[in-house]
Amino acid sequence: MKNILFIGPYKDSNGLGYASRRYINCLAAKSDINLSIKPIFFTNSHIQHPLDLKTFESYENAYYTYYDFVIQYGYPEYYVYDKRFGKNIGIVEIETRSINRSGWSSKLNMMDEILVNSTNALHSAYDAGVTKPIRLLPEPYNIGAYEQSYNPFFVDKKETNPFIFYTIGQYTDKKNIKGIILAYLLEFNRQDNVRLFIKTDDYDKKPEELRESIKYDINEIKVALRKSQYCDIDYVVGRLSDQDIIRLHKDGDCYVNACKADGMGPCAIEAMLANKLIITTKNIGSSTYFNSSNALMVDSINSSVYMSNSILNKNIFTIYEEWNEPNIISLQSQMRSAYNMSKNNKDQLINNYQKQIFDMNNIKDHILI
């Protein structure tokens, strides 16, 4: 039996936290290891729902004097190499290009091996001077959870049966939710039976402040458009349980990923597992898994991340990094295409999904080599 130590933000309520919990469940499915886990924290927003963490207590309490593998998941600036133990593995989310001034390369080069989840991340790491072995490995998912039946997320959906576009992400420039709102309000009118649902958060704002910010942004767009009527937009601010996120995916119609940068597009992957139609930006991390054969792709152009002061103040990216700016007109067009798409054409896209590569039962034997 090999002893494994996993260090990651599994108590955070963001995407990294959700992915950490999936990695832990994946490792726990291996019968030939002893698993110990320790948390780190990147946000002030932590899990409150006990169902998401109840199985982890025994792993937290497990302690071993020697570890054959130490796995660190998160931002490389927090990596520490421990020479007392065996193989040190870093699992890193690299979303942008030109990261050579980020300071990540030296941290990544301390590790014995690096795991990334997209071809974009692979190229960014090598271009930045990472010399240690890098493997491309998708994040693990419990595929069976997306095949189960759940109570509807949208309890009023049966009344008018609207076509529901939905998106999940932080209310940041990178996630580009304002771009989705703009494209949606530009494209659709009251005669279109559509709805846009947004699940979002901002760790720098209180929920009531963020709600006011979103309301203000929507009103500003409406004032600029000068239409007499607008289609419905609903939004939820704050955390949903992991199970409620799956319920949302199961009940929506089309997931919209208009990010300017992402790792592998985990929410789009979840939408794939739930057999939903997907709109996503070209030439970002999720393009490793999505193309015109299985998704509606939004044109984009390479641009600097220096788009607003908020990015630099949050110290997420350096001014030298690059991402891909989605074209709003292309996004509009793909949203209209999704709304008008026949069942046959939709099924053709969905049938091209490669779900099995994300199955934790397939991935569990490839994390540790």
- The total count of strands amounts to 14
What shape does the CA trace take?
globular
Q: Helical content, roughly? A: 25-40%
Tally of helical segments: 13
Strand content: 15-25%
The secondary-structure element order is EHEHEEHEHEHEHEHEHEHEEEHEHHH
Low-confidence stretches: 309-313
- Rounded mean pLDDT is 93
User: Span from first to last CA?
Assistant: 14 Å
Write out the strand line-up for the largest beta sheet, numbering strands in chain order: 2-1-3-4-5-6
Structural class of the secondary elements?
alpha/beta
**Major sheet size, sense and barrel closure:** 6 strands, parallel
Gyration radius (Cα, Å) is 21 Å
Structure characterization notes:
This protein is α/β, with parallel strands linked by helices. Helix content is 31%, strand content 20%. The protein has 13 helices and 14 strands. It has helices spanning 15-28, 57-61, 104-108, 119-127, 157-160, 177-187, 207-225, 242-251, 266-273, 309-313, 328-340, 343-350, 360-363, and strands spanning 2-8, 33-39, 69-73, 87-91, 113-116, 134-136, 163-170, 194-201, 232-237, 254-257, 277-281, 296-298, 300-304, 322-326. Strands 2-1-3-4-5-6 form a six-stranded parallel beta sheet. A six-stranded parallel beta sheet has the order 9-8-7-10-11-12, with helices on both faces. Strands 13-14 form a two-stranded antiparallel sheet. Helix 6 packs parallel to helix 7 and helix 6 packs across helix 11 (328-340). It is globular and about 70 Å long. It starts with a strand and ends in a 6-residue tail after the last helix. Mean pLDDT is 93; it is low at 309-313.
